[in-house]
Predict the structure.
Amino acid sequence: MKANLLEWIDNNRVLFGSMAKAIWDNPQIGFEETIASQLHRDAAAKAGFRISDVDGMPTAFVAECGSGKPVLGLLGEFDALAQMSQVVSGEPKPVKAGAPGHGCGHNLLGVASLTAAIALKEALDKGEIQGTLRYYACPAEEMLSGKVRMAEQGVFDDLDACLAWHPSSVNMPWAGSLLSLCSAEFSFKGLSAHAGAAPHMGRSALDAVELMDIGANFMREHVHESSRIHYIITKGGKQPNTVPDEASVWYNLRAPGSEGLLDNCRWLTEIARGAAMMTQTTLLPIDFKSGVYEVLSNQTLVSLIEQNMRYCGPPVYSEADHKLAAKITASMPPAAKQKGMDAGFIPHRLKDLYLHEDILSPTDEGKSQSASTDAGDVSQIAPFAQFGACTWPIGVNPHTWQATASAGSGIGTTGMLFAAKTLACSLYDLFSMPEVLDKAKVEFFEVTGGARYVSVMERVKGLDG
Ligand SMILES: [Zn+2]
């Protein structure tokens, strides 16, 4: 019974709340999340899951229980962000200056999914529901590569459906998408010379970077308006009196769909070649760092998630949570709060609230958040949907000190347990209502045409040369 799942999760609030706090207290960035990964692995093993490693990824694993069809998955993440250290407070104050912190709430993300998996295991063991349940411990989401590398190894291939969630400021299923992305560093080789005495003897690699950036900024007008182009210069010479013979620029390109993304990547590569030609420098082999697909949100699963959010009932926060939320909100000027709400498609009628103790129907169908996630790759392999749960005050955006502070507080724990309940109940329905799962699979096939998954990384490789 689904009611048992809710009771089990409520009874285990302290256990899983402390696990999320232990991860928050020991933030580690992508592929280095040994503490978080071990805590997840120990909890899954203790609960009796079968655990398998993922080749070449020590902090990734797959935990499985049950057997046979359907095969249903839950995604978990636990990596922190560089330089996001922050104490639980309404004012900006790092625990340790310059250290990592959980500014995206991934200390909650993985634990909620694991909590849901462990809660469901009893129902599977008793034969109340039948099939295989998997918890995927996915490292390095912030580097947009953990799930891509796992997907390339085929670990998601036999899934019938997969669910996830993300810390957020409102409780809402995500019917919309997130952008596909390609991240690549372009390096140029020139000729050094004395910049004062003999500039005519040199060829500046930095000139190539600058001309490439100018080209990219003119290209910007002619890409789809939802696309994003951002870059940093990672190498630009050491001192001005030497013509720099080495320079590099690192780009992230994002677009609503992978075909448009690849088109933009192709154009940017041509701009880089043009910049090299104009400056008589050489474009070195392009360093493609990561690439992810846009998210295909399965609307059948989105509806199922909404029904279960409502079945579980919205999270209710303590007095202390409300006080902290009021202080955090006071740190944001009204314009910042409004911009934060706009980024998450949050209706302005919620602007006077601190914490969302309600459930919103999706406001984003047909739209795309302008961030990206490697869960997009999973959504290309199996029917997939996710939702946001309120783990920080309305208007707070991820990757901010306010988000880190909230993710380490009771606000985070309460939102996390609501997420765990929603995931557990939604999967329970998928195990016990084959007609819903079939509908989700038909929709998935209509959208993808059953095309075989080839990663964006694999597809962009052909652009270099
Ligand atoms: Zn995140």
